[in-house]
Amino acid sequence: MKLFIDIETIPTQNQLIIEDIKSSITAPGNYSKPESIQKWLDENLEIEFDKKYRQTALDGLHGEIFSIAWALEDEIPQVLFRLKGESEKELLEAFFQDLLVKKDNFGQRIAITQWVGHYITGFDLRFIWQRCVINKVKPSLDIPFDAKPWDDKVFDTKIAWSGSSQYSGKSSLNAICEGFGYTGKGDINGSNVYDYWLKGDYKLIAEYNKDDVIKTRMIYNRMNFID
After folding, report:
1. What is the tens place of the pLDDT at every residue in 26-43?
2. Most-buried pick from 50, 55, 158, 196 (CB within 10 A)?
């Protein structure tokens, strides 16, 4: 059974890591006078911190999963997300529990034979596995986080379209949707999810996450000539 999946991530919420990032920011080496160093820090510290801090959303060691959206075959997509301060560990446990109790038409536990997503071989699957390790959450099924793009365990719509070449045209989910004649992704994208999170638009992000699963499934079907 195919599992279509997508995640949205946010920067670390660990205060110790946040403080480490702040303390790592220093003035460029050509600044030697204490007053010029301090002036540079006064003008640039927050800007440089924000850049480094936001980058942790792409690093499974420190970044965190905000939401997970998925769909089995042609079923209606589901999404789990957490409010500010809620546990990432519990989010992961709930996701795997939902898959664990899922039954087929014969009452048997479903078997995931293929994971499908956009750039899941380069990001989503490994990020999920990394956060499971960090949170000490043992997955209820094998995550093919080290699968190559051509492995039958996965179907990566980004790699399927563009291959491994860096010069084979646009391959973002939004670009492919528009190229295929589907509606684009709208105002939210991976680069500004955190801004919406700061505003408390949690449900909006979750719906965007779920819509990515829908669009990925549409692209997968088109690529495989499935009506």
Report:
1. 999 898 899 999 999 999
2. 158
Q: What is the distance between the alpha carbons of residues 5 and 15, in angstroms, rounded to a whole number?
A: 30
44 in a structural domain: no
pLDDT in tens, 153-212: 999 999 999 987 665 678 899 999 999 999 877 788 888 999 999 999 999 999 999 999
Q: Is 12 left (phi over 0), alpha (psi -120 to 50) or beta?
A: beta
The phi-psi region of residue 200 (left if phi > 0; otherwise alpha if psi is between -120 and 50; otherwise beta) is left
Instruction: Identify whether 28 is part of a domain.
Output: no
Tally of domains within the chain:
1
Domain CATH for 196? 3.30.420.10
